[in-house]
Amino acid sequence: MRFSLSLFLVLYCLTTGLAQSTNRLVDVRFQYKAGRSRPLILAHRGGPGPTDTENSLVTFRQTVHAVPDAILEMDVRMTVDSVLVLLHDDDIARTTTGTGSLKTMMWSTLNQVRLRNLNGEPTAQKIALFSEVLRWASARKVLMAIDAKPGTDLNRVMQTIKQAGALDQVFLICYSVADAKRMRLLFPDLWVALGFETTEQLKTVGKEIELRNLIALASIRDRAFYDAFHRQGVLCTASTYGHTGLDELPVAHAAEKYRFLVKNGADILTTDRPIEVSALFQPDR
User: Fold this and answer.
1) What does the DSSP 8-state code read for residue 187?
2) Whether the predicted model's global pTM rises above the 0.85 cut
3) Which residues pair with 74 in a beta bridge?
4) Phi, psi at residue 207, to the nearest 5°?
5) Which ranges of 52-199 does DSSP label H, i.e. alpha helix?
6) Above pLDDT 90, what percent of the chain?
7) How would residue 244 be classed by pLDDT, with cut points 50, 70 and 90?
8) Do 74 and 114 touch, CB atoms closer than 8 A?
9) Among 10, 142, 219, 274, which residue is least crowded by beta carbons within 10 Å?
10) Coil, strand or helix at 53
């Protein structure tokens, strides 16, 4: 009887652990799915419009309200007193009412400036604390793409995510394979994203880290490129923002081009206009 009870407890723990690992939000949402009719929508800097602020909780809420399954991309930087905040540029002049280099500033100083919208107009919004956004997103099970800018302490970033209970809601954009490898040693189930220009890079990366829980960041590529990654179960992004991207065209003119990207194999569309692009696709059945 004692042996049977012990065996039961072991099996129960194993099956419970397996269920927990396979029910993580990131694992479910980022599992490769052949013949995907609706892409995952990644909202670049939260997906602000001209009168909105980028990397702000106000814009994040607006995007998620319109596209509940959107992935929010956010840029994390660190102040001189090691406070993690959301801002794309180190020079704060473009996106805020202040001036200077963020990495040389105290949080108490940054907390006094206000965000500008994309038109450059001042707003009443403050720079967002990373911890504040994580708490909001964790409570609502929002997926996030974390772009920790060079010079930001990745250990501090990941510990902040862990403390917010959001490890199963993020993937970490890494600027090097070494960073991805280092973070995977600390968090073995972490989803990481790396930039890829060629399929040959898969072999190099595969020698350093497991290809599981990996997302390939790429510009628009051909079907053969996507197929090579899909054979390894790796999802691929297609970036449509930027001066020469599809996002610069009227939505009506670019609609079929967005749809062609998905038919061609792109799994995730990284876009400045997530609400409009999402509306071009019907939900997967």
Assistant:
1) S
2) yes
3) 146
4) -80, -20
5) 57-66, 107-110, 130-140, 154-163, 177-186
6) 89
7) confident
8) no
9) 10
10) coil
Dist. CA 185–CA 209, nearest whole Å: 10
User: Phi and psi for 236 in degrees, rounded to 5?
Assistant: -120, 140
pLDDT at position 284 is 67
Q: In the numeric block, which tokens belong to residue 198?
A: 């060629």
SS3 of residue 76 by DSSP: strand
Residue 175 has pLDDT above 90, yes or no: yes
Question: Which residue's structure tokens are 């973070």?
Answer: 183
- R_g over Cα of the chain: 20
pLDDT (0 to 100) of residue 285: 54
Q: Are 104 and 177 within 8 A, CB to CB?
A: no
Identify the DSSP state of 190.
-
The structure tokens 């509940």 sit at: 68
Alpha helices in 51-153 (DSSP H): 57-66, 107-110, 130-140
Between 201-208 and 177-186, two packed helices, what is the crossing angle to 10 degrees? 30
